[in-house]
Amino acid sequence: MVADLRSDTLTRPTPGMRAAVLEAEVGDDVYGEDPTVVELEEQVARLLGHEAALFMPTGSMANQVGLRLHAGPGQEVISDHLAHVLRAELGAAAAYSGITTRSWVAERGLLDVETALRVMVPDGGAYQVSTACVVVENTHNFGGGTVQPLPELQRLRQRTQEAGVGVHLDGARLWNAHVATGVALADYGACADTVSVCLSKGLGAPVGSVLAASAEQIGQARILRKRMGGGMRQVGMLAAAGRYALEHQLDRLAEDHRRAAEVAAAVGEQLPEVVDPATVETNILVLDVGAAGWSAADFVTRVGDRGVHGYPTDARHARFVWHLDVDDAMTGHTADVLVAVLGERRTGAGS
Ligand SMILES: *Cc1c(COP(=O)(O)O)cnc(C)c1O
Questions:
Q1: Superfamily of domain 252-346
Q2: How many other C-beta atoms lie within 10 A of the C-beta of residue 98?
Q3: b/e sequence 112-143, b meaning 16+ C-beta within 10 Å
Q4: Mutation test of ligand 1: which of 7, 11, 60 has the most ligand atoms closer than 8 Å to its C-beta?
Q5: Which of 63, 198, 323 to mutate to test the pocket of ligand 1 (most atoms within 8 A of CB)?
Q6: Of 118, 207, 279, 306, which residue is 20 to 30 A from 269 by alpha carbon distance?
Q7: How is domain 13-248 classified at the CATH fold level?
């Protein structure tokens, strides 16, 4: 049996989604004439409580266009040290927009507003770089699917607003936060000026993200997207997959959360130093395999040989992500393999 838990981007379109793609009404979206894209954009804007939205080929482009709306060359964007925008978008803010970045260390990627405010420099004048935007990731990918508490997000929103600094929410997995907590998407949306969401993660669409913001910002984002090479034509084909995912594959994210929690409980019971099950809130399980004497790379290879595929996020942490294509049987197999392989080094202590 094989459980491919490297990422929730690995999902394949379901038969219902493929049918929706075939039937999609389309037009030229660079002319704003693709009705399915327009429907998707309106739907996501409404869900997030923003005026407008824009369909994007990738989450990275949605984030980078979002950052560019806040900051220009010589300004800075700040976030935690594990943030996707800082760590996994290949320096795009610097390479494309001349934006510099700074970060603070955040355990599990959890937002601590006071720390963010200490790093923030609202008006650096002629001496320090001015902070144009704070980025929050919810749920937090490399943090282990961490859900950011709504009161902290609201406090960040208020304090940054007072300081004249923007907030961008990297909500690639905001759907998971919503399903895990029951907090309305619009309540999360209200905590940021600009919000990106992915359709291609746990929701199961083959491609696509959406950026939501004010109507004026989205007008500007349309220009920035085209400039970055993201102007797309008859992409109602893809927007239809996103529409289908929102209608049929949103609520089922709860199953991914349950399965990740089951494996966390199984591992945590045997090896509490490797994972605290209470921290596994959504579909991502990050194991501190270093605490059991493994390097992340060796561990991932070893469990991979036994049909469980994960991803080493750094030297001592391995990540496993649940999604649409991982069922209960694969989940049980995963728990067995992880517990057995983690135990190998511990029982052979010193070897
Ligand atoms: C996946 C992801 C993105 C976007 O990734 P793309 O591969 O560019 O679509 C952005 N932020 C987070 C937190 C992600 O997990």
A1: Aspartate Aminotransferase, domain 1 (3.90.1150.10)
A2: 13
A3: ebeebbeebbeeeeeeeebbbbbbbbbbbbbb
A4: 60
A5: 198
A6: 306
A7: Aspartate Aminotransferase; domain 2 (3.40.640)
Nearest C-alpha neighbor of 38 from the set 190, 240, 248? 240
- pTM > 0.90: yes or no: yes
Strand positions, DSSP E, the chain:
3-4, 52-56, 76-80, 100-104, 131-137, 166-171, 194-198, 209-213, 284-288, 308-309, 311-312, 317-321
Could you report the per-residue pLDDT of 91-119, keeping only the tens digit for each? 999 999 999 999 999 999 999 999 999 99
Query: Is there an atom of ligand 1 within 6 Å of 80 CB?
Result: no
170 CB within 6 A, ligand 1: yes
How far is the CA of 338 from the CAs of 67, 106, 113, 269, in angstroms? 39, 26, 35, 12
Query: Would you list the domain boundaries of the chain?
Result: 13-248, 252-346
